[in-house]
Amino acid sequence: MNLGKIEACGAKLRLMDLGGQVKMRPLWERYYNGIHAITFVIDVSPTCDVSKLMEARAFYRCMRDDESLRNVPILIFANKTDTRRLLDKYNTDDEDEDNDILLGDTSLLDIADLFLAKPKSSRDLLKKLDAANDDDNVAFFAGSAKTGEGVRAAFDWLIQMGAAQARQAHK
Amino acid sequence: MFGLASGLYHTYLIPPEVSILIIGCDDSGKSTLLERVKVTDFHSKESSGKRIAVQQIRNDFMHTEKAIERMKDVSPVQQRKSPSKKQTLKKKPSPKRRLFSCPAPKMYSQSRVDSDEETELIESTDNGVELQGTPKPPSNSNATSSDGIIDLPYGNVSMSPAASPERPALIQGFQPTDDGIDNESVSAANCSFDEGEDDDQEYDLKAGKSMFPLHLIRPTREFHPLLVLFIVYHIYCVLNITYHSPLSWKQKLA
After folding, report:
1. Which of A16, A147, A158, A159 has the highest number of chain B CBs within 10 A, making it the mutation to test binding with B?
2. Do B29 and A41 count as a contact with CB atoms less than 8 A apart?
3. Chain A: residue nearest B23 by CA?
4. A54 and chain B: CB distance < 8 Å anywhere?
5. How large is the ipTM?
6. How many CB atoms lie within 10 A of CB B105?
């Protein structure tokens, strides 16, 4: 586990980064108590396996339905978007060699759709995205930790929500 | 009185302590994200935080939807290809940016070259030239200069003829004008940002701080049970030797 303590946006942050191996995942639940915000990181690079994304989604669903995490804001951070701009480098030839289905150039919208909801049509999806970001405490942000784009926007949102949550918990 | 003051202070003035958990599958970049957050500058102006991502996705989406509507008369094969190429940038969407950050226009530019598009492209070249004149600072955090740096490579990637090799013969008529614009923008990009590779571009970096080197970030692991056993055994042995063994050895030898 890695710990990070910083001050940002008028709040003291205690960031806990847990291991993501399959072995470690049952341990996540032990940290849910006393948590004010959660960042769920997914990999959306073109070389990522689709099965891995589905695995992540299964875990996300488990986490979202957890009792102790009710009202806790969740940020879904689609990481590694910087690799998507080099899309042309990843040719389809690689796909044929190994049998895995790669993410390729799947649009972020589809991925957001996977995680947020199952709307009927595209119009509904837009509404859902809005609703998810306005009313619910789940947000889907994309960015890259390597270059740092999108990180600030995502964490601005998360810290705001987390601070509100912390104040509520304090009362 | 002191109680009242301290109570007030604790309820209103003290910064709330927020515990944030970062989880996700392995190799999704959690530790990197943590290191990035440590060096991200949250204090500087322009915190437009909230719904940027959604806004951006929305823009992309509207763009492609419009394009699809336009393309409805053309062959269905192209329609299927259409929404595939899409890139999202996490910044304030401006009309210029929207053009570049959503380069789906493979078919959008094929179908018809708008007057809007031309003007926007020309604007962007102007932008590039301006930037070329002004020396850019080493650490530019989401200022206007960084916009140009991001945009131009995008335009480069998406609109150069090499990126889209298969062009239907039907729309060949449009190609000359298209290419003319492309060459301008590409050349502007090349001459102004020779050394500025977009891979090295970093956003929202705190002044005087640098990112933890990426190659040093290792997978976050638990203790291996055997390792724990070894450590415990080692400690046990050391204690035993220092406190008991001399006597006991002597006794055994004697």
Report:
1. A147
2. yes
3. A40
4. no
5. 0.82
6. 22
Read off the tokens for A75: 């940020």
CATH T-level topology, domain A2-170: Rossmann fold (3.40.50)
Q: Which of A67, A2, A92, A10 is nearest to A39 (CA)?
A: A2
Chain A residues within an 8 Å CB radius of B88:
81, 84, 108, 142
Q: Six-digit token pair at B223?
A: 């203790």
Whole-model pTM: value is: 0.56
Q: Decide if pLDDT at B183 tops 80.
A: no
pLDDT for the residue B204: 67
Q: A38 and B20: CB-CB below 8 Å?
A: yes
Measured in residues, chain A has a length of 171
Specify which residues B145 forms β-bridges with: none
Q: CA angle B167-B119-B81, nearest 5°?
A: 25
SS3 B122: helix
Distance from CA of B181 to the nearest CA of A (A): 21
pLDDT in tens, B111-121: 444 444 443 44
**CA B118 to centroid of chain Cα atoms:** 28
Whether the Cβ atoms of residue B127 and residue B102 lie closer than 8 Å to each other: no
Encoding tokens for residue B49? 């935080």
pLDDT band at A149 (very low <50, low <70, confident <90, very high): confident
Cβ–Cβ gap A129/B58 under 8 Å: yes
Calculate the alpha carbon distances from A36 to A19, A162, B159, B201 in Å. 19, 5, 45, 32
In three-state secondary structure terms, A142 is strand
Mean pLDDT calculated for residue range B134-160: 36
Cβ <8 Å between A141 and B157? no
Q: Is A84 on the interface with B (CB under 8 A)?
A: yes
Interface test with B, best of A33, A59, A149 (most B CBs within 10 A): A149
Say how many CA atoms lie within 13 Å of A79 toward its Cβ.
25
| B238 confidence band (pLDDT: 50, 70, 90) | confident
| Average pLDDT of the residues in A28-53 | 83
